[in-house]
Amino acid sequence: MAASQRGSGRARPAREPCLADRMRAALWGPAEFVGPPGPGLLAHGLAVGAAGTGAVTAAGAVGMWAGPPVLARGEAGLMVVAALVVYLAVLRAGRALVGIVAVLGVCLTLTVPQAAAGLALAERGRVEQAKVASVERVPGHRRSFCELVPESPHAPPGTRIWRGCTAATGPGDDLTIVYDPRGRAPLRGSAQPHERRATALRLAALALGVALMSALAVVRSFRLTASTAQAETHRKTHRKTQGQPEGRTPGEWQRGTQGGTQGDTDDRKRHDREG
Q1: Is residue 197 helix, strand or coil?
Q2: What is the DSSP letter of 55?
Q3: What phi-psi label fits residue 154: left (phi over 0), alpha (psi between -120 and 50 degrees) or beta?
Q4: Distance in angstroms (rounded) separating the CA atoms of residues 263 and 251
Q5: Distance (Å) of CA 159 to CA 32, 180, 183
Q6: Residues 44-89: pLDDT tens digits?
Q7: Where are the stretches annotated Disordered (predicted)?
Q8: What is the pTM of this model?
């Protein structure tokens, strides 16, 4: 893609990069354009970010509702994140930006199954009561883990639940559990409304972060092509050969030269008449 299509400003003049420039380009991308990025480059970045985020989110949602259960466990999301990182590496995007995208992508992949499971249980979950076999309180943490009795329905032996398990819960107490009749979502305790809201906000923040950082990595990966750099060098050389100052078009330079010559001729004629 030409520089005029990918950057709104002129291409940066070619110069010998120093060590700091090379380090900056390696970490954050070269971004070899002046001014804001062009619409084509910006659209490319937004498309990459939206596609990666949408694929990770869709994989978890499809696996929880209708697709293969393997999609709901997050492996497919990790593969999508890996493909996104490889694509950015092929574009030679900044390594720091690629690393940020990878970290945010992994966090998003781990959050999507939890959010999808909560949504599935809220829509089709069944509520039952289960007996608590034992309670484990972790020092320094606000959560307590309740282990259900082996005879609990829809709960495999050794199931531990923290939702609904409070400091006042003890062995033999009844605990409200929610299970998925389709068996796709894992069993959990009854969630509070603020927990669902917090999960949704965390999911939205991570998805937005992955999309924006991916778009930024694509935009800043723009480099001048060899033909563009040669054309810029040839244009400057031609101007110097013709004696044309930089920053002026050939028409402006010619009009200015003709105007100066005509002015000198008029001055000589006026001097002859006065003499």
Answers
A1: helix
A2: H
A3: left
A4: 18
A5: 56, 15, 15
A6: 999 999 999 999 998 888 878 777 777 777 888 899 999 999 999 9
A7: 228-275
A8: 0.68
